[in-house]
Amino acid sequence: MSPPLALTLARTLALLLALVSLAVVLWTGVEDRSAALAFGILIAVGELTRWSGGEERESAPLGAAGALSYALLGENAGQATHHGVPQVVAVVAAAALLGCVPHVARGHGPTADHLTRRVLTVGFAAVCFQPLYNHGEFLEWGGPAYALLLVALLVLTALCDAVLAAAMKHSRTRWPFGPLLRDELRAMPGIGSAVCATGAVMAPAVAVVGLWALPVFSLPLLLTQLSFRRYAAVRVTYRQTIASLARATEIAGYTPAGHARRVAALSRAVGRELGLSEADLTVLEYAALMHDIGQLSLLDPVPAGATAVLPADEQRRIALLGGAVVRQTGVDAEVAVVVERQADPYREQPVTARIVRVVNAYEEMAREAGPTGPLTALEKLRLGTARDYQPEVVESLARVLLQNRGAARERVG
Which pTM value belongs to this model? Predict the structure, then answer.
């Protein structure tokens, strides 16, 4: 499947910017080669140490901080630099590409999108800073005012990077742009604040003491990156633990194999389509994985685990039992609330519980209906929107199923 137009344009723009910058540098020569080499090594090391497959908005904070500080570098040990925008982009692009080679060799990604963001973001920062600095516009700013100017420029660059990241993800996945941008902005105070702080300090430090400032100011960010990596590993282990708990109903024979995973995946897709935040999507996924765990308290299993066909009072009893089990596992209380309220009248439920209820009912109805399962299940859900299921959630589910079917046809084609 070919990339969407907006994503293709962003990649093309980044490639053209990198190639033009490299051609200019090859034609005019490299200014201050020692600084270019030092920052290039720093950026390459930062890219080499980036992690892949996580949900963090900045997977290579050391590389990002080094690239931004080089874009905002005006002096080196008291001597003015004149490397300009093309050299900044060329050095960053070459170093980032070199640092990404091992990740490409191991099949880790998405490297193309990562490099696109890096080149365009650094290019934006360099265009905002280098021409004005080289023409002496910033010389009138001194002391704290100059530092505040650097911080403001870094914050503006971070905002542009967040918009670019959300736009690229929207173009690639067709998820709603607004929630994607909101998640990017909410993630900025995390590792993004450390990147901005390091970039804001590193450039003035190099201007005063020279290139020796690079390893000194890189070490705290590298340690921060290691801490974030450990935190990400803990989150992965946490999710795996929840998935293992969810399989207890399958192992005990209360629910069909893979039922919880299918409900969780489809619930997350519906939540994404409805514009839920990343935090709400995580709660939704965990609740969907554990939505049937209350059946472990039943003496006689429900046939095929199909709780949607049970009387309302029995559904609520099983849901309350499930919520009690979830609370004893130490999982977030929000997850327990969703599990407990999945059988309540939908007008009294949080939106996450409404999604779990609709998707679980769809999965059970589609399984029982045979070859015409999806259409039959959607028809039954639409008939139940007056009382049992929220109409907006049912229609969102229908759109997600249609998108999945279209994506599957494109892959086959």
Answer: 0.78
